[in-house]
């Protein structure tokens, strides 16, 4: 069973493997953390944030009474891209760079099976509002299910 930190590291490694973001992937708590890193320059960068999880309902409980309790836990992560941006009045449209990089992120992660035995699923993406001048942010949501086990034997 992979830990949250292992899953986070896996995504950071995947996004850091893209040519545009080589060694520019970071584990962050939220958008504020990524904005601080983005304000230092060196764009584009990508932040990976654990967003939480929920139990997956198990319709058929096949665990014997002598086994440890097990279940599925659906975990969600945000992958947030930060790129330099000049106003819409500029002759250079950097939004195209952003959408191309989003395409690359989707292709890299969709269906990937690494430390977990289940694939990564794409949930959606959207621009992410920010007041940081000269930087635009786009977020993607990803999820996968992990097996969790309890230490107590069922009786």
What is the gist of this entry?
The protein is 23% helix and 38% strand.
Describe the structure in your own words:
With 155 residues, the protein is an alpha+beta fold. The chain has one domain (4-56, 70-149): Phage tail protein-like (STM4215-like), CATH 3.30.2000. It is 23% helix and 38% strand. Strands 1-2-3-5-4 form a 5-stranded mixed beta sheet. A hairpin with a 6-residue loop joins strand 4 (121-128) and strand 5 (135-153). The mean pLDDT is 88.
Give the DSSP E fraction (strand runs of 2 or more residues): 35-45%
**What is the count of structural domains?**
1
Which strands sit side by side, in order, in the main sheet? Answer: 1-2-3-5-4
What's the alpha carbon Rg, rounded to whole Å? 18 Å
CATH homologous superfamily caption = Phage tail protein-like
Helix content: 10-25%
What multimeric state do the chains show?
single chain
Uncertain regions spanning at least 5 consecutive residues: none
What CATH first level would be assigned? Alpha Beta
Principal-axis shape: elongated
The first-to-last residue Cα distance is: 23 Å
Which CATH architecture would you pick? 2-Layer Sandwich
Q: Please tally the helical runs, counting DSSP H or I stretches of 4 or more residues.
A: 3
Structural class of the secondary elements?
alpha+beta
Count of extended strands: 5
Could you spell the SSE succession in H and E letters?
A: HEHEEHEE
What is the CATH topology assignment? STM4215-like
- Mean pLDDT, to the nearest integer, reads 88
**Largest sheet: number of strands, sense, barrel closure:** 5 strands, mixed
């Amino acid at each position: 069973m992979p830990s949250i930190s292992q899953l986070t590291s896996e995504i950071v490694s995947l996004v850091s493997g893209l040519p545009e973001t080589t060694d520019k992937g970071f584990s962050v708590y939220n958008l504020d953390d990524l904005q601080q890193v983005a304000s230092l320059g060196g764009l584009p960068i990508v932040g990976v944030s654990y967003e939480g999880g929920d139990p997956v309902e198990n319709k058929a409980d096949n665990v014997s009474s002598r086994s440890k309790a097990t279940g599925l836990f659906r975990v969600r992560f945000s992958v947030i891209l930060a790129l330099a941006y000049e106003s819409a009045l500029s002759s250079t449209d950097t939004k195209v760079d952003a959408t191309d990089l989003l395409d690359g992120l989707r292709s890299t992660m969709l269906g990937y099976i690494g430390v977990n035995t289940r694939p990564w699923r794409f949930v959606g993406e959207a621009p992410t509002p920010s007041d940081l001048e000269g930087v635009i942010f786009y977020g993607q949501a990803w999820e996968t299910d992990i097996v969790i086990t309890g230490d107590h034997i069922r009786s």
